């Protein structure tokens, strides 16, 4: 009841409502065009494109998650890839367990890589992942818990601005190194792959692919609604107040560390869900997902789309990744030039991203003056300011 | 803030000492709203506050004057928990030791502060600025389920009327003039409904008319609140017509009526000039 | 400065080894004697020739004797005695290539009794070699083998030996032999004493070998000796770890110091800093290529030539970055971070396009290759020079920042930008030069790193996070902080490695720093000042 009213708050903005309908529409349309329209038709969506589009939507969800903390709370996370990957690993672990005896070594309990490493029994942290529901819980719990612990310490000690960005980067880097180790029990370098099916349905079948695509669209729409409800509530106003003048909110009696912590954890959980939906569609999860560069790339999706707009980053993620697919197909050497240029041009000329551009084009008065960076006017040298 | 150990002097030199918790309030602090005694704070050897003692009674309004660097802002920082004193006692309502609490707790106890440089939430509307300041729930998650209600709306309307920003309620605070931002910040103080208002240079950058308005506003507020005003503008201080404390180099130079203080030769020497 | 003295000592030692090129007068005599193998008549002829070589007593004959023992000494169809190498024929005395490998080589036949004669002759020859280093290594060989047969020649050599160092080695060799062969408890105890004083890995091996068969008191004595050696070795190991740590720390320092300057003065994080390092490394590569192709005799100078060029190249790119991008983003540190990341991607891809994606070969000049031993530690010249270079850069920067007018202005801007601006310092100018300076220093760090790391387009990636950790740990805007931060992290890393492994050690360091920032958000050596808000 309360929850319903809370979510309804997210629908106040027509932009959100329309965007949700569009996302759900795509979620239905793509599977229909793939399954029901004959391959000869120009409207047919090829089989390999369904998971590709699904991947874009997952990236969109990650960008949305990032926007919640960067756009509304001023936390530039350079480590959201870690939450994404952790969600992915949690789902991947379940899919590994579902392989059962169909692995190369045919061991009913141990995944192939463990047999290969001569392990005798399943490590304790793999317990429970044979249950789909448990895995789904972990998809949200593990990134959420990591975010909670990290945020608890970081926000409490008032680490902000670039310092915070750098330690989020260090966090994902440390995880990258950790997951590369074979001893960790997550398949080391190769990660988790060779998945067969999910809930008993063959992952390679067209129906399952389409179902996964629809699910991704559904969760994206749902997360958009949740994010809109959060940012539209009074809490959202507090969040923005913390972003713009953290010290001031403290003198009003708010605890910015707790305010930020909530958004941070929600955002991490969203990124985890995105990762979990990503893995069955892509068919692999490996430590590369933790690479610092991945997390920074997520930032550019959000920046291109327009931070602080929720819908923009989703579009940004789709746009940038579609461009990436095109470049890697046609001009592979130039992709990094394009991506690098995108970083520079967006920050220099499009601080509000494409969404800001569209808003301007439609002649609506810019809703807000440029959001202030938290460290503006506060040179690093002013040491005691941070104490 | 947590890493600065709260230093409690090993041997308090002056008479009133910090009592054990829940001990009866010593008579010296009875009926005081704010009680500072022997407070010192130095930054890298520079004594911003030096053996400062300052008492504010319940319901009182006080003006603080003093040259730049006299320690006015540091004193506010200490009261609001932003800065810990190196030594000395700071008590609120007679028995709450402010040196043991942080900013949000102190704010929730009922000490509101207006900054020297007006700080309002520029990307939000005037009404939302007041909504965020309204006394009440300060936790995040209940705020998710907050629903606009009649008492809150009425209170915001009242304050908007007091600070004369009714017609700009839905505009972004960033678009207000400097003086209007000062008023909005005073309005935010009112919305908090604190027991004690600390007002740092409320009329800096205001026109004469605005200054007069502000003095009237503060006098109105002082009817049912205790107020400490820091101000350089002597005309404004005279308008307030309250007891004045003059700070210099971190301690009290002179205290009394404005006429008394401004006649003090020391005050003339260091502050007013001849 | 003790460090300088150690350095001077090390250089003297190395030069001494080179000068000790033995001046052998009887090279011709040895050569003539070896030639007799070609005409030797049967086994007895060979034996006679070996005896003759032993009588000459010049260790130059050792090479030929070894080859003889391994059936590699051959006679060519035209009657010359040569060693058959893997792919050429070698002179039996000098070991230089004398001819292509040809067919129809005749082997000089030997039998087992001749083989042991050869071995004895070799040991005896090397124990009497002119070069004390050779004598020492002969003694060490005997020490490790501990063959009772050798006792007599070693004792004879010991009686004749003058050099105290070689004497000690010979005494140890005698002790090892006695330990293996004697039954007299007194002699054994004394031998254990001598061996445990030697205190290295070989001594430990000998004692452990003895311990396995010893019983009673002798076993206890051996245990004592083993413990003494192990303690000593552990200390040297710690010393070696400290050295590795200092070496890694100076690399981290070099990579981070430019970043510390730009971050300190401008509050800007330059994510392309690692790429500046990479540019410096590639500059070294280009300089070396040019030298290889056109001026090969300059190769030993290549690094000195590359240093200023790398500084200019990276500094210039930095200047363009500051003027073109960063100054437009002043006051928006997070956006700056993203834009510089974009620059880093472009620089990486540009280098990949120009030089290819693979590692490029950057050579070590002769004075940077090789290693020397210090006690039980092995120190490579390249690492040693990098540590020296890091110290040099540190002192130079300290001097520049504390003494030059740009340094003064930089410090002013670091401490209070608005005030500095009000005092008439042209802060944009200071920013641009600071950024160029920081980038330039990254460039010369790249020259140093090219000596110990793979030069590839990804070179910078490996350093960027570590550099940030150093800067953040040491405290922003403080050269000493960066030095201490770099060295601390380097040493900590190397000490964790043996216990936790390289990767886990690194993770632990990262976690430590993440926690450390929580406690001290401004680093070890934070600039102090009254809060201005």
Automatic annotation (TrEMBL), chain A:
Topological relation to the membrane, as annotated: Multi-pass membrane protein
Principal subcellular localization: membrane
UniProt keyword annotations, A-Z: Cell membrane, Membrane, Transmembrane, Transmembrane helix
Stretch list, region Disordered: 367-387
Keyword Transmembrane: yes
Regions that span the bilayer: 15-37, 69-91, 131-155, 162-180, 211-230, 261-279, 334-358
Locations listed in the record: Cell membrane
One GO term describing the cellular component: plasma membrane
A UniProt-annotated Pfam family: BPD_transp_2
Entry's Gene Ontology molecular function annotations: branched-chain amino acid transmembrane transporter activity
Domain of life: Bacteria
Entries under NCBIfam families matching the protein: urea_trans_UrtC
Protein name: Amino acid/amide ABC transporter membrane protein 2, HAAT family
UniProt lineage: Bacteria, Pseudomonadati, Pseudomonadota, Alphaproteobacteria, Rhodobacterales
Automatic annotation (TrEMBL), chain B:
ABC transporter domain span: 34-274
Cross-referenced InterPro entries: AAA+_ATPase, ABC_AA/LPS_Transport, ABC_transporter-like_ATP-bd, ABC_transptr_urea_ATP-bd_UrtD, BCA_ABC_TP_C, P-loop_NTPase
Single annotated GO MF: ATP binding
Domain of life: Bacteria
Record's GO cellular component terms: plasma membrane
Region Disordered: start-end pairs: 1-26
Keywords: ATP-binding, Nucleotide-binding, Transport
SMART domains listed in its UniProt record: AAA
UniProt keyword annotation of Transport present: yes
Protein name: Urea transport system ATP-binding protein
Record organism: Albimonas pacifica
Lineage, uppermost ranks: Bacteria, Pseudomonadati, Pseudomonadota, Alphaproteobacteria, Rhodobacterales
UniProtKB/TrEMBL annotation, chain C:
A GO term from the CC aspect: plasma membrane
Keywords: Amino-acid transport, Cell membrane, Membrane, Signal, Transmembrane, Transmembrane helix, Transport
Signal peptide: 1-19
Subcellular locations according to the entry: Cell membrane
GO MF entry, a single one: transmembrane transporter activity
Transmembrane annotation, as ranges: 242-269, 301-321, 384-401, 432-452, 464-487, 499-517
Pfam families per the UniProt record, alphabetical: BPD_transp_2 (PF02653)
GO BP terms in the entry: amino acid transport
Membrane topology per record: Multi-pass membrane protein
Similarity comment: Belongs to the binding-protein-dependent transport system permease family. LivHM subfamily.
Protein's UniProt name: Amino acid/amide ABC transporter membrane protein 1, HAAT family
């Amino acid at each position: 009841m309360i929850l319903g009213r809370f979510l309804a708050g997210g629908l106040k903005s027509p932009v959100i409502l329309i965007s949700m309908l569009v996302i759900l529409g795509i979620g239905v349309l793509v599977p229909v065009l793939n399954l029901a329209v004959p391959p000869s038709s120009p409207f047919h969506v090829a089989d390999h494109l369904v998971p590709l589009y699904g991947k874009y939507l997952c990236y969109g969800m990650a960008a949305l998650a990032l926007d919640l903390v960067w756009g509304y709370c001023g936390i530039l996370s350079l480590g959201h890839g870690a939450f994404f990957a952790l969600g992915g690993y949690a789902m991947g672990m379940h899919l590994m367990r579902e392989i059962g005896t169909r692995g190369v070594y045919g061991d009913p309990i141990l995944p192939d890589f463990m047999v290969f490493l001569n392990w005798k029994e399943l490590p304790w942290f793999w317990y429970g992942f044979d249950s789909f529901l448990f895995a789904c819980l972990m998809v949200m719990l593990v990134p959420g818990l990591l975010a909670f612990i990290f945020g608890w310490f970081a926000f409490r000690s008032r680490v902000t601005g670039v310092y915070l960005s750098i330690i989020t980067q260090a966090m994902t880097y440390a995880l990258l190194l950790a997951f590369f180790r074979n001893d960790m029990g997550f398949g080391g370098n190769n990660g988790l792959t060779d998945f067969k099916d999910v809930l008993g349905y063959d992952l390679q079948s067209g129906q399952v692919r389409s179902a996964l695509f629809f699910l991704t669209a559904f969760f994206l729409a749902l997360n958009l609604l949740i994010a809109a409800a959060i940012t539209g509530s009074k809490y959202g106003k507090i969040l923005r107040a913390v972003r713009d003048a953290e010290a001031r909110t403290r003198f009003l009696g708010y605890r910015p560390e707790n305010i930020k912590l909530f958004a941070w954890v929600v955002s991490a959980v969203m990124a985890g869900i995105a990762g979990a939906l990503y893995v069955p569609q892509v068919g692999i999860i490996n430590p590369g997902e933790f690479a610092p560069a991945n997390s920074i790339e997520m930032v550019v999706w959000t920046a291109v789309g327009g931070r602080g707009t929720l819908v923009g980053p989703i579009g940004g993620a789709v746009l940038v990744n579609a461009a990436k697919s095109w470049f890697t197909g046609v001009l592979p050497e130039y992709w990094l030039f394009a991506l690098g240029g995108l970083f520079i041009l967006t920050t220099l000329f499009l601080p509000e991203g494409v969404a800001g551009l569209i808003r301007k084009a439609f002649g609506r008065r810019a809703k807000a003056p440029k959001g202030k960076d938290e460290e503006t006017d506060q040179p690093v040298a002013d040491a005691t300011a941070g104490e | 803030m947590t890493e600065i150990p709260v230093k409690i002097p090993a041997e308090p030199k002056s008479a009133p000492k910090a009592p054990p918790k829940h001990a009866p309030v010593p008579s010296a602090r009875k009926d005081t709203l704010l009680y500072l005694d022997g407070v010192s704070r130095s930054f890298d050897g520079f004594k911003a506050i030096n053996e400062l003692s300052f008492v504010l009674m319940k319901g009182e309004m006080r003006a603080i004057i003093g040259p730049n660097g006299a320690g006015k802002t540091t004193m506010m920082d200490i009261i609001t928990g932003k800065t810990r004193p190196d030594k000395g006692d700071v008590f609120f309502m007679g028995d709450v030791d402010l040196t043991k609490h942080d900013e949000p707790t102190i704010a929730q106890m009922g000490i509101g502060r207006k900054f020297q440089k007006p700080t309002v939430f520029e990307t939000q509307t005037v009404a939302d600025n007041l909504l965020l300041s309204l006394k009440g729930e300060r936790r995040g998650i209940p705020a998710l389920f907050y629903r606009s209600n009649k008492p809150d709306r009425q209170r915001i309307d009242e304050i908007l009327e007091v600070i004369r920003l009714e017609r700009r309620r839905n505009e972004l605070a960033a678009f207000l003039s400097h003086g209007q931002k000062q008023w909005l910040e005073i309005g935010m103080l009112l919305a908090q409904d604190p027991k004690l208002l600390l007002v740092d240079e409320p009329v800096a950058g205001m026109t004469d008319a605005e200054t007069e308005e502000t003095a009237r506003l503060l006098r109105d507020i002082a009817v049912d609140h205790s107020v400490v005003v820091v101000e350089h503008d002597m005309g404004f201080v005279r308008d307030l017509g309250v007891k004045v404390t003059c700070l210099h180099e971190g301690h009290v130079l002179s205290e009394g009526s404005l006429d008394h203080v401004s006649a003090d030769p020391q005050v003339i020497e260091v502050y007013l000039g001849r | 400065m003790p460090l300088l003295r150690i350095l001077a000592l090390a250089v003297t030692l190395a030069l001494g080894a080179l000068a000790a090129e033995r001046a052998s007068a009887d090279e011709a005599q040895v050569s003539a004697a070896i030639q007799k193998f070609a005409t030797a008549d049967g086994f007895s002829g060979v034996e006679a020739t070996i005896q003759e070589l032993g009588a000459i007593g010049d260790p130059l004959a050792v090479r030929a004797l070894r080859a003889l023992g391994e059936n590699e000494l051959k006679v060519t169809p035209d009657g010359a005695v040569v060693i058959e190498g893997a792919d050429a024929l070698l002179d039996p005395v000098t070991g230089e290539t004398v001819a292509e490998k040809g067919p129809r080589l005749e082997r000089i036949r030997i039998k087992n009794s001749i083989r042991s004669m050869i071995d004895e002759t070799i040991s005896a020859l090397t124990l009497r070699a002119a070069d004390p280093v050779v004598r020492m290594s002969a003694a060490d060989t005997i020490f490790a083998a501990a063959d009772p047969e050798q006792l007599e020649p070693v004792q004879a050599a010991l009686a004749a030996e003058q050099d105290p160092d070689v004497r000690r080695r010979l005494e140890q060799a005698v002790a090892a032999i006695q330990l293996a062969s004697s039954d007299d408890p007194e002699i054994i105890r004394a031998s254990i004493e001598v061996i445990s004083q030697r205190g290295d890995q070989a001594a430990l091996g000998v004692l452990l070998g003895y311990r396995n068969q010893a019983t009673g008191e002798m076993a206890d004595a051996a245990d004592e000796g083993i413990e003494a050696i192990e303690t000593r070795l552990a200390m040297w190991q710690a010393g070696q770890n400290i050295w590795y740590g200092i070496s890694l720390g100076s690399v981290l320092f070099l990579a981070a110091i430019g970043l510390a300057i730009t971050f300190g003065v401008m509050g800007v994080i330059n994510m392309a800093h690692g790429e500046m390092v990479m540019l410096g490394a590639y500059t070294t590569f280009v300089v070396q290529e040019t030298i290889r192709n056109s001026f090969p005799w300059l190769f030993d100078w290549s690094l000195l030539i590359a240093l200023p060029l790398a500084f200019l190249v990276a500094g210039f790119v930095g200047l363009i970055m500051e003027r073109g991008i960063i100054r437009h983003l002043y006051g928006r540190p997070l956006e700056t971070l993203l834009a510089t990341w974009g620059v880093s991607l472009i620089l990486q891809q540009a280098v990949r396009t120009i030089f290819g994606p693979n590692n490029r070969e950057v050579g070590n000049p002769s004075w940077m290759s090789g290693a020397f031993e210090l006690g039980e530690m092995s120190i490579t010249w390249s690492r040693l020079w990098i540590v020296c270079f890091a110290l040099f850069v540190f002192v130079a920067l300290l001097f520049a920042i504390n003494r030059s007018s740009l340094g003064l202005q930089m410090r002013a801007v670091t401490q209070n930008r608005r005030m500095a601006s009000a005092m008439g310092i042209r802060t944009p100018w200071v920013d641009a030069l600071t950024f160029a300076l920081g980038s330039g220093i990254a460039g010369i760090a790249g020259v140093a790193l090219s000596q110990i790391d793979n030069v590839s387009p990804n070179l910078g990636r490996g350093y960027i996070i570590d550099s940030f950790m150093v800067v953040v740990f040491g405290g922003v805007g403080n050269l000493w902080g960066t030095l201490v931060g770099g060295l601390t992290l380097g040493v900590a890393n190397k000490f964790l490695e043996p216990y936790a492994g390289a990767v886990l050690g690194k993770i632990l360091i990262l976690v430590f720093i993440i926690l450390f920032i929580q406690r001290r958000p401004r680093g070890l050596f934070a600039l102090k000042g009254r809060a201005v808000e």
